[in-house]
Amino acid sequence: MKNRITELFNIEYPLIQAGMIWCSGWELASAVSNSGGLGIIGSGSMYPEILEEHVVKCKNATDRPFAVNLPMLYPDIDKHIETIIKHKVPIVFTSAGNPKTWTAHLKEHGITIVHVVSSVKFALKAQEAGVDAVVAEGFEAGGHNGRDETTTMCLIPMVKEQLSIPLIAAGGIGTGRGMLAAMNLGADGVQIGSRFVATPESSAHQNFKQVVVDAKEGDTLLTLKELTPVRLVKNEFFNKVEAAYQSGASADKLKEILGRGRAKKGMFEGDLVEGELEIGQISGLIHEIKPASEVVKEIITEFRQALAEQQTDKYRF
Predict the structure, then answer these.
(1) Residues 150, 40 share a domain
(2) Rounded to two decimals, what is the model's pTM?
């Protein structure tokens, strides 16, 4: 399977695992890369010395390309960048900030840069900044999200219409058929997060993995748009946030309720009551915990089956 994304990253399949905080360590990243996709270490929840440890272990666990996701708002971003350059990480996915800040510097060191956006406007800004590809993420996605609530099905063709560099679709994709649909809309590849949370290699707590498996349609909602929009599972903490909205709480009050370390408490430590549980709408289609290699194989097999069906008389009118 060769296209602009597989050639850009030197991978077998145009399937990228998202760099999710508290869920995407070296074990998951190396497992996905070894399976033919692109694994990503999520550095947003790591101290600089922890990221270095994960990068070293990932390099020892795979001889294939992998990436680091780098949130631009991270307080020690310069230290993360030193680690990335020192250990010659080949690919960096930047997010949550201005791609102009570090793109040129990283590219000087031969690093391929991809930026994550939620709108056409920011996709074009990323292209102008010189990135090599863009991830356009619809609001179905888990974790932090765009304020405009543009769905993946609408966002991808709108970005494709304006963009000349490779485009990766994200948000609400967790199956082979979903992958094919995104690529039919114009994407060159897909980035998948939620499906990889429910794997043994994910660093998420077992309690959180089980919540993902048990989730049904309507169990998540985008909230906290006054702070940073985030899609959460409806639990006790979520109910407190909703009650605050009902009482007309200010942004400062919402910030007070959120506090610090909510995502770690929920996803990494397994507190299903008071923790922040970030996951995408696609969780309603995730029914079991299985190895990352099986997830990749299942998605690619279904993609190929769906593509074959698409080429039959069933789709001729």
Answers:
(1) yes
(2) 0.94
